[in-house]
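Re-run with default settings, no changes from the original entry. Doing this only to confirm the output is reproducible before filing.
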Amino acid sequence: MIHSMTGYGKTTGEFGGKTISVEIKSLNSKFFDLNLRLPQAYKDKEMELRALLQKEAERGKMDVIINIETDPAQQSNLLNKDLIKALLKDLKEIKTELNLADENLLQIIMQQPQVVNDDAAEANEKEWELISKLIQESLDKFKQFRQREGKTLHDDIAQRINLILQLREKLAEHETGRMQGVRSRLMNALKSFEGNIDTDMNRFEQELIYYLEKLDITEEKVRLLTHCNYFLTMLNDANNNGKKLGFIMQEIGREINTIGSKANDAGIQRIVVEMKDEAEKIKEQLSNIL
């Protein structure tokens, strides 16, 4: 079963008065492109996480956000009092030395880094165990989302391939009349020159047969059928991927184009246009398959 590159998964958990959330989402991309946002305390886990996420996601533009929120009501020593006192002392000295106007020094101090303590900034092995568990749960949801999206893509693509096969069957309605029409036009054109040129009818018949063979689309129809059936087989193969299906789709498009170039018939051209329309829609869908 095919999987979409579009995926989403999110889980949350509680640890020591903190709310931890892990959110994973991805869109289609030819390669693996990861944007990872980790709490500062766990930056050393980044390479380990990148390896895990690439193994699980394979391809796609992926955003992973791990967020830790602390409830201030449950946080001890919310303010770094020693740092605040030291900053206040230094600022008062500078104000006196430079004879500056009295300003709200406390407001300035509170805007400085590390003035407010943040329990979330401290690494904790038990906390990391919970984060790892949440990451795996989010990945499970993420893969389930990809699988559901893949099922939708599978059904849509299979329907369009079958429509191309139905259109292929309609080509036969126009083939017999098309060859006879070409033959009649060439014969009428030749008759219009009678009396002005010498005509070797045997040679004319040989050239006519050669020309009609060039317009024959039997081989293209056979190859189109083969490629479409192979495509459907690979679509249901557990080991298939979007790139392989894309290659097969190129061959299908090539046969459709060749039929169009040989058509020489308005009815066949209309069918070819419908085939091309379905083929283009399939190519768009394939760009989102893993």
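The longest strand covers residues 60-70. The chain has a mean pLDDT of 83.
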